[in-house]
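Incident log, structure service

09:12 report received: a user says their structure output differs between two submissions of the same chain.
09:20 pulled the input from the user's history:
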Amino acid sequence: MRLRKCLRGLAVVLALLVSAPAFAHEDHDKASAARTQVATGPKAGMAAAPGPTGTVEDMDHGARMAGAAPAPMPRRLYRWFGAMHPAAVHFPIALFLVAAVLEIAALTLGRPVLTQGARVIIALAALSAVVAVMLGWFAMGPPGKDDATHAYHRWLGTSIAALGLLSWWAKEHWVRNPGRGRELVYISLLTITAAAVVLNGLLGGMLTHGLRHLML
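09:34 re-ran on a clean worker, output below:
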């Protein structure tokens, strides 16, 4: 009974927190267009000034403007993989949170059939998290020069991939060998993973839109 009350409370907290990563990615295209307009300037035909340092597009654009030779194919491929991270990361974010909601609904509503759907979703979430983390390492490059926000985002994301794999293992172990202890291990791991996903989504929003992007 206590577990169900705690899960109801967790569902409310997740519902409130899930909106944070959504707001973090909202109007991204508008913000990018605004930055491009500012960099271009009011005069027609004026060459666009380079944007914030460190972006793949700006570095390539700067090289072309300077008349430099194109980057070698391995380096361009490395950057291309890194550019896929913002798109790939949405899959584990959504899947982990959906799995958590399904497990909460299954326990609170007494509908065990919902856990079967969560079994597939948690597997997809764990695998997609590994892919997203690999692409994130391509995007950020080797560690060592990260500021605090980048460092937290990097290592928390890496931890999420590990937690996701553990959650998947715990889910399969519980389904194949039902037991109260195995259920608690799985629910605990999934809860920690979902909370970490929300927190890292906030950090990703800070890196994309700045520290004040959620302020009213």
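09:41 both user submissions now match this output. Likely a transient worker issue. Closing.
09:42 reviewer note: Residues 12-66 have pLDDT under 50 and may be disordered. Residues 96 and 125 are 6 Å apart (CA to CA).
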